[in-house]
Amino acid sequence: MTKIKKIGVMTSGGDAPGMNAAIRAVTRTAIYNNIEVIGIREGYTGMIEKLFTPLWSHDVSDIIQRGGTILKTARCMEFKTNEGREKAYRNLKEVNLDGVVVIGGDGTFTGARIFNEEYDIPFVGIPGTIDNDIYGTDYTIGYDTALNTVVEAVDKIRDTASAHNRMFFVEVMGAEAGFIAIRSGIATGAEAIIIPETRDEVKKLNALMESGRRQRASNIVIVAEGDEEGGAFVLANKFKKLYPSYDIRITVLGHLQRGGSPSAFDRVSASRLGFSAVEALMDDQKSTMVGIQNNEIVLVPFRKAIKLHKDVNRDMLAIAEILSS
Ligand code: ATP
């Protein structure tokens, strides 16, 4: 018998499609095990300002297909202070929470880890971020949906680029990581993929343009927003000056990448992770993320998930280069 009687669930940091599916899975798994559930609204702000709502099975009906998060999310500076976390602890104690499932990215896990070093309410994490940049899990909730959104958008850009023999620099999300850029680049047959992790790609693009080989054709260059050279605007303007004979345009996909109905893959992953997060709390886990590795559920300490760097798959870059040549 688990000693867990009541848990909280919260979404924090950047929103990602599939967070609702995770909230639903946490709620229904807990209720199945006779555990009460409290929804904590607006990330860590909700802990500090007591934004608590009980969640029953019917409260999570009809949300598996919805983007965003019914609990809303926030970036909360106060939780970074000792006073903020103390206030949060007092409030969680007041409603008798025996554990909390936090759904978010590495910032969310950093806060949870610090809290678990200071206080005795266990936190378990579910990776939810479109960037897929969390160590210890092959996929994060929202990544697959964002990828599909990007592919759909770039296909449309390709149509108009082809019609006019234009080159488009398309900026995708990924402040510090090129996961979305690489996969979407391969899936759309991009001529170049520029990501923060490597320096060679800009040189290769230079060589391609220099050769004039693709001057009378459409060209798609996918640029991760966090690239060191600057985003799509900076890069495109540089190339415009260097190669005036190319008709260069820019599209920044921006926040549309965060929205939309989650893909089947994200819904299933979120359901598995939500289920496993409640089981982890019942098994007395704390300061731990549930992740997916090789299609198996794994437990990864926050310490590792935060500290260790998840590298992009370099083979994918090589494949992209060969296939676009
Ligand atoms: P995403 O990857 O989508 O941006 P994230 O979880 O990394 O998601 P952040 O804004 O970095 O998003 O972090 C979410 C929240 O976690 C912060 O607003 C803050 O409340 C808390 N947090 C982040 N870092 C710390 C920290 N060092 N100490 C305490 N709390 C933190």
Topology:
Blueprint: E1 6-11, H1 19-32, E2 36-40, H2 44-48, E3 52-54, H3 82-94, E4 99-104, H4 106-118, E5 123-127, H5 143-164, E6 166-172, H6 179-188, E7 192-194, H7 200-211, E8 219-224, H8 232-242, E9 247-252, H9 264-282, E10 288-293, E11 296-301, H10 302-307, H11 314-323
Parallel strand pairs: 1-2, 1-4, 4-5, 5-10, 6-8, 6-9, 7-8
Antiparallel strand pairs: 2-3, 10-11
Bound molecules: adenosine-5'-triphosphate (ATP).
Adenosine-5'-triphosphate is lined by residues 12-14, 43-44, 75-76, 79-80, 104-108, 110-111, 114, 129, 131.
How would you describe the overall organization of this protein?
By secondary structure, the chain is an alpha/beta fold. The chain has helices at residues 19-32, 44-48, 82-94, 106-118, 143-164, 179-188, 200-211, 232-242, 264-282, 302-307, 314-323; strands spanning 6-11, 36-40, 52-54, 99-104, 123-127, 166-172, 192-194, 219-224, 247-252, 288-293, 296-301. The longest helix is centred in the middle third of the chain and has 22 residues, at 143-164. The termini are far apart. The model has no long low-confidence stretch (mean pLDDT 94). The structure holds adenosine-5'-triphosphate (ATP). Adenosine-5'-triphosphate binds next to helix 4. Residues 12-14, 43-44, 75-76, 79-80, 104-108, 110-111, 114, 129, 131 line the site of adenosine-5'-triphosphate.
